[in-house]
Write a structure and sequence with these properties.
Blueprint (H helix, E strand, L loop, with lengths): L5 H4 L39 E6 L6 H17 L5 E6 L4 H13 L4 E4 L8 H9 L4 E4 L9 E5 L1 H16 L7 E5 L6 H14 L4 E6 L6 H15 L4 E6 L2 H13 L15 H9 L5 E4 L1 H17 L2 H7 L2 E3 L7 E6 L1 E4 L5 H5 L6 H4 L5 H6 L4
Parallel strand pairs: 1-2, 1-3, 3-4, 4-5, 5-11, 6-7, 6-8
Antiparallel strand pairs: 9-12, 10-11
Helix pairs in contact: 2-10, 3-4, 5-6, 7-8, 10-11
Length: 375
């Protein structure tokens, strides 16, 4: 990714509800005027259809946050006349291709696509383009002629993870061995997370073993972590870079099963409920909190603005630019992120309404919650 917004790169801040995306429709935006290179018809009214393709269900965020928020936001932006047609691929790229083809055949007005396989989806993106249907890549940067991209600053995610782990390991981190558990090679975000982490790791730590996790599956992460322990030795592992919370959970399970006395610092991403509980308890060191409500709201606004020809609004939302392997200078909206630790749970996931204290502090975690005054 290049041409990155410096302010966003450095904006490692806690996002509160006041930072949610606000539609520019009511802020004096004039329709049909702007600097976007893309063509948009201003003739489409509120009776539009957004096709939403999400990649999998292993990560709970898609069903719990992304889909319902996008659906609600589209309805709000279109006076309850717009609809969202939704399909989840269940981590199957071929299934997603079929889902995309059907939405194109059904003539949806715009597609939001979170690709299972960013390269494989390119032909489907081209088919949509040929049919005059704009495609906005959502969360993962799809290849092909996409109109825009909405996601988080993914290299910053890796930097936040890497910086947190190095800080936890201390001044002599260079002499300590860590295991690097990356995401799926079919997800371009995984490469960006890794690149960001490597910026921080740069000669500051000894990476003993590195693994990619097929399809982000915790079961695959478990196998890889078992290999890492066998190769490096349980007591020699000072920390683990885990690219997301699903991987982190599998790593921690392996370490505990093999009898580690104290779980070394393990990173994560997505602030899943189970991960937040592990952080409260002290089993997981940190996660990266990404405001899914903000990302989803921005995506819905961009989709509606693109179809209705609101180019000033569209360009204002997509104020960044990124490159994919097939296209350069793609308009993008990159949402900032924050390191989530025991110290800021109340100021992030609770403040933003992602979880309630009672959801986190169940009976098994009550004493741990009391210890950090999480009430």
């Amino acid at each position: 990714m290049n041409t990155r917004n410096t302010r966003r790169r450095r904006a490692v801040i806690a996002l509160s509800s006041s930072a949610m995306a606000v539609s520019l429709v009511g802020c004096g935006v004039v329709d049909g005027i702007g600097g976007s290179d893309t063509e948009a018809s201003p003739t489409k009214g509120d009776d539009l259809t957004v096709g939403l393709l999400l990649p999998e269900t292993e990560n709970t965020r898609y069903e719990k946050f992304d889909y319902p928020i996008i659906k609600s936001e589209v309805a709000k932006l279109t006076n309850n006349k717009g609809t969202v047609v939704y399909a989840n691929a269940g981590a199957d790229a071929k299934k997603q291709a079929t889902q995309l083809d059907k939405m194109v055949d059904d003539k949806v007005d715009v597609l939001l696509v979170d690709a299972v396989d960013s390269k494989a989806i390119a032909s489907g993106v081209q088919k949509a383009k040929d049919a005059g249907i704009p495609v906005i890549a959502y969360d993962r940067l799809a290849e092909g002629p996409i109109d825009a991209y909405v996601s988080f600053d993914n290299e910053l995610v890796g930097e936040v993870q890497g910086k947190a782990l190095i800080g936890k390991l201390g001044d002599d981190s260079a002499s300590k061995k860590i295991i690097m558990m990356n995401g799926s090679v079919t997800d371009p975000n995984a490469a960006q997370f890794k690149a960001g982490a490597m910026v921080e790791f740069n000669d500051k730590v000894n990476i003993a073993k590195t693994y990619d996790t097929k399809d982000w599956l915790p079961s695959e992460a478990k196998k890889n972590m078992e290999k890492a322990v066998a190769a490096v030795g349980l007591d020699n592992i000072a920390g683990v870079y885990a690219a997301n919370d699903g991987i982190a959970g599998a790593v921690i399970d392996v370490l505990k099963t093999m009898g580690v006395s104290t779980v070394p610092p393990v990173t994560g991403q997505d602030a899943e409920l189970a991960a937040v509980q592990r952080i409260v308890k002290g089993d997981q060191f940190m996660s990266v909190y990404k405001s899914y409500p903000q990302e989803a709201s921005v995506a819905a606004e961009m989709a509606v603005a693109r179809v209705q020809g609101r180019t000033i609004e569209f360009d204002a939302l997509a104020s960044d630019k990124v490159d994919s392997p097939t296209d350069k200078n793609i308009l993008a909206a990159l949402v900032p992120v924050v390191a989530l630790t025991r110290d800021n749970i109340a100021d992030t996931v609770i403040s933003d309404g992602i979880y309630k204290v009672k959801e986190i502090c169940t009976a098994d975690y009550k004493s741990a919650c009391d210890a950090i005054d999480l009430k």
